Amino acid sequence: MRATRSWSVSSAAVEARRGARYIADLTIRVENGEWPNEPLAVFWVPEPVRNESHYLGVLPDRRTGELRFHDASSAAEGTWLGRMADDREVIFSRWRLDWRQSQDGSCWVDGERNYGRGGGGGMRLLLRLVGPTFEVVPPEQCDLV
After folding, report:
1. Can you give the pLDDT at residue 9?
2. Which helix (H) or strand (E) holds 133?
């Protein structure tokens, strides 16, 4: 799976400062329980400090540009709708309105956890974030009708 950046946060700076590993730009659940439209950079922290989560979200402040750190543990909740393209590339939608097409053009996904949908060829998958990587949920553990 390819992780792409939607905006500019220096992952190298966060990785060096916190010993973190960049995962992807994703949305996290907000206080009202919804998944917002705006993603943030999500990192895996192998040794969190105090009572922090292993998942750290980083978003620049819109006014000052200063980096803001957030608990991003909700990124690992549940599953993500994905597809495996004909060339075996795995794609998934990372936030609402994040329409993505496979590099070979055989399939697409959209809507993240808000209204996840996909089409074209390829195989429908469910993905789960485990540690710093996305893993395919085995078919015997989910209903892929």
Report:
1. 66
2. strand 133-136
Whether 43 contacts 20, CB under 8 Å: yes
pLDDT more than 90, % of the chain: 28
Q: Which of 75, 94, 112 is the last residue of a domain?
A: 75
87, amino acid identity: D
Residue 126 has pLDDT above 60, yes or no: yes
Q: What letters, b where the CB count within 10 A reaches 16 and e where it falls short, cover 98-109? A: bebebeeebbbb
Helix (H) or strand (E) holding 11: helix 11-18
CB–CB of 98/78 below 8 Å? no
Number of domains in the chain: 2
Q: 107 is written with which tokens? A: 């399939």
Round the average pLDDT of the chain to a whole number and report it: 83
Tokens (6 digits) for 8: 């500019």
Domain containing residue 123:
80-141
For residue 1, tell me if it sits in a domain: no
Q: What residue has token string 């998942």?
A: 55
